[in-house]
């Protein structure tokens, strides 16, 4: 297997721990609105479950492209309504700040160091559904260094649409077959492989709090597999 000439990274779940972070943030906000009775981890899980259906409306052409910040806020409002909370009766600044909890996700312990080592081998870019401002704030807070912020907003579409992968590879100046998606999600990797990209799977067993991943049935033999970004870097460094 040839070494990639550039790496694109899924971010939510692969590089940052969204579940722990969103549960922590939501616990504070739920207490602030008098709904501390709700389970914050369950709240985080259900918020995340609304992710793909919300983006599907854009991918299927039923809606013009909007950035993920917009969808995150809409998903939050819908989830609050499900629990009998009228978001319109809340301070809009509070609701927006809560929706922007996705800007404040903690990295996995190996992420910053692993990303730096991989960046020494080839350019590293985001290949995320997150919008540019979200990725900038998240990355600055988490100490993550990229060569470019690419993905959904650049491509004006959401993964797993084929054009998002191809547009990110093209913007990185390499052919699809020279570009490697690094992700913790088999469904993401499967779509990237279908688009002609190389694939690197990072095992993140605690992404869903130890529960089985929802896309485990899509597992394949990926080009590279590791249990951390530092371990992936070590594999590739050994090939120099």
UniProtKB/TrEMBL annotation:
It catalyses: an (S)-2-haloacid + H2O = a (2R)-2-hydroxycarboxylate + a halide anion + H(+). Keywords: Hydrolase. It is an enzyme of class 3 (hydrolase). Its EC number is 3.8.1.2. It comes from the Bacteria. It holds the Pfam family Hydrolase. GO terms for molecular function: (S)-2-haloacid dehalogenase activity. Catalyzes the hydrolytic dehalogenation of small (S)-2-haloalkanoic acids to yield the corresponding (R)-2-hydroxyalkanoic acids. Belongs to the HAD-like hydrolase superfamily. S-2-haloalkanoic acid dehalogenase family. This is (S)-2-haloacid dehalogenase. It comes from Sphingomonas palmae.
